[in-house]
Amino acid sequence: MSADATVLVGYAAKLRWGSVGLSYGARMVKSPDGPVSQRQSLSSGRVSDGADGVSWSNDALDVSGLWVGGRRIQSVALVDGPSGGIEWECLGANSRVSVRMDGAGIEGFGYAERISMTIPPWRLPFQELRWGRYVSDDGGDFAVWIDLQGNLQRNWTWMNSITSVEGTVDDAGVRTDDGVLRVEASRPIRRENVARTLLGSLQPLSRLLPRGVRSIQEAKQLSSCVLTTGASRSRGYSINEVVKWL
pTM for the complete prediction? Predict the structure, then answer.
């Protein structure tokens, strides 16, 4: 997110189902007062995770960016069962980000993460996912949370630490024994069916998706927050989301 609260969310994905493979890339941009702008491509672009940081470029989307520094969080098995699993890794919880898009530059703080799934999204053992990423205005503080509800109930929360603790997540914020992240105000980024969100102009492809995927609903928002951990207190923003499998 930039200093003027412009939000950029980028996706680079590779999918394989048996002998069928597909690449996908997308960018979603929301300025403080404007509508959401979104573009999709059947190309994931080029992603690199090296000593200089995490880079992503996609010529079809006219976007390239570099995520430098930030605390890394080791991979976590969110789901591990006979039907497959989900492995999540944070590549930078509070990275400094520089992006070029449509010939213009955007700079600010953000995060980068990697998710590997071997379980089909219509066979997930939970029915609701709440996740969020907070970075303070100066980039010094961060919070990350992943909360699963339904048949499987699990929570991982990181507050200025690479070791997770269990937290409680609701619309008011996140609470743990280590600290509290309080939401002050929020504005929506996207409230939509996930298939329409991801596919956008590629919407005709949605008929190829299983019904369990076409019914997923998301509510993504940008929130101004206050993080309190011990004697430390900071202000910043979080991107947070509630996803429901209906």
Answer: 0.90
